[in-house]
Amino acid sequence: MEQKLGLIQSDSMDLQNDPRFFQDNVLNKRLEAFSKLGVVSSLMVGTCTHVIAMKKDMNFSTTEGIMRVVSFGLLSIVLFLNIIAAYVGIAQTYHTYRLETAGPTGFEIATSYYLNPNIVAWRHFAVKCMLHGLTIFLISTGIRVSVSFEDLTDEEKPRITKHNARLLGLVTLTFFCIGGFIMHYINGKHQAIFRVNYEHAKESERPYMSTVHDIMHSKRNGPRPHGNVV
User: Fold this and answer.
1) Could you list the residue ranges that cross the membrane (predicted)?
2) Which of these, 18, 48, 153, 196, could form a disulfide with 79 (CB 3.0-4.6 Å)?
């Protein structure tokens, strides 16, 4: 069913045991450092998801209500920034390792992917998203804590009007939908660059692998030498 619909890829790269894969290189060092970005961003995403559980009874007529709206908006931005950082950190590390182990020219192809201008730009952008997201997260947390000191009881708390509640919900829905489309664009860009580099790796190694297989086949089926082998 997966093969007919084409929704899930059912084939994978060839597995070739190359001893060079076990040697350290500068690319692996950079990937090891960059992979930490995905870990930190994933933790931040988990921390920011409590934006869903936040109370939405915000009243625009009070200072506390406006501060709650600002805190909610900042926390949503932090969530979005760290989702971008987490995706880029995980996807680029995964794609680079896949290309690096794709064959004899894997390191060169992985390097060309890693140094692609679009990939470099998204990598730098992801680092900035994570670093600036920490600052915005602290500001948002500070606003929420400051409001909690003057939190009113349920009887004293002014309720948000139905019109404002719908407006806030619509704005939030629009923001998250735009974020989803941006993530779709980022994923498409990474996948397109990965496919180009992978196809180039396969095309460049075909003549070499064909020659090697022909030599191995001729040696295996060739005439055996007579006499004792010393």
Assistant:
1) 33-53, 65-90, 167-186
2) 48
